[in-house]
Amino acid sequence: MQDALTLSRSQIQAFLTCKRQFELRYLRQVPWPDRPLPERVATAVSRGRQFHQLLERHFLGLPIDAHTLDDDKLRHWWHDFRNSGLEIPNGHFGAVQHKRYLPEHRLTIPAGNHFLLGRFDLLVVGTHDDLPFAHVFDWKTSHPRSAADLYADWQTRLYLAMLAEGGDALLPNNRSLKPENIAITYWYVREPDQPRTIFYDQAKHKDNWADIVQILGAIDDHTARDEWPLSDSWEPCKGCSYQVYCGRQTKHASTPDIAADDLEVDFVGWSEEAVVPEIP
To answer: N or C: more exposed end of the chain, with fewer CB within 10 A?
Structure first.
């Protein structure tokens, strides 16, 4: 019997993009070849990490002195966040009787033969009109995306589905968390007054969870057969550090020119897993 895997949105996206990369990185755990980032990209990654740490400190109730921030852009982001009037949680939830802030929170739930892992920048749980709710907030330092694009992203789909399936564990007295009382908000430093909030419901969850179960079954099938085909398209290979393992290190697989301001970096759990820039 195969070992159970703990799958985050990064693993799921890797499996869907290229099963060979999924095998090399997450099953065989071949070290990700170390390629130094361009200076502008490294600066963007560092600044984004610092911003996430800053908001974690804020929601832990620790004091923050903006004058001690030695990065002008970081200080500007903090000022914009403080003055954005972001509703935490969203007013959609009505009269909130109780709420609890859980910054940089991890949630793991069983799913099929495996486990699903979510790492939330900020999770707010509580009750509104005597009904439990859960609201995820995600801080983005990259180029803004539309709500439609964000809903299709596996970060959104996985986080909402996980809370619908396992969010009860976050609530007292075994109360049930309904999909209609779950939401996720993306807040962009570039558009501080235009948060993207996505609400969930039972119909969306039924379709979403069916897709997740299907993907988990496909992972089991490929593992049982030990078959890990390469991506049909060469496009994902251009920025993949595993090119050499697949014989795709040709002129078609050149390193893309990454724009620092358009970086999307998975900062959640950055202390446990190498931070890998993702190109939108």
So the answer is: N
**Is residue 152 scored above 90 in pLDDT?**
yes
Q: Is the distance from CB of 78 to CB of 68 less than 8 angstroms?
A: no
| CB-based contacts of 193, cutoff 8 Å, min separation 6 | 84, 85
Residue in the block written with tokens 């809903």: 151
pLDDT surpassing 80 at residue 276: no
The 10 Å Cβ neighbour count of residue 158 is: 22
Q: Which domains does the chain have, with CATH numbers?
A: 6-278 (3.90.320.10)
Mean pLDDT within 41-59: 93
Q: What is the 3-state secondary structure (H, E, C) of the chain?
A: CCCCCEECHHHHHHHHHCHHHHHHHHHCCCCCCCCCCCHHHHHHHHHHHHHHHHHHHHHCCCCCCHHHCCCHHHHHHHHHHHCCCCCCCCHHHCCEEEEEEEEEEEEEEEECCEEEEEEEEEEEEEEECCEEEEEEEEEECCCCCCHHHHHHCHHHHHHHHHHHHHHHHHCHHHCCCCHHHEEEEEEECCEEEEEEEEECCHHHHHHHHHHHHHHHHHHHHHHHHCCCCCCCCCHHHHHCCCHHHHCCCCHHHCCCCCCHHHCEECCCCCCCCCCCEECC
Q: Which amino acid is at 262?
A: D
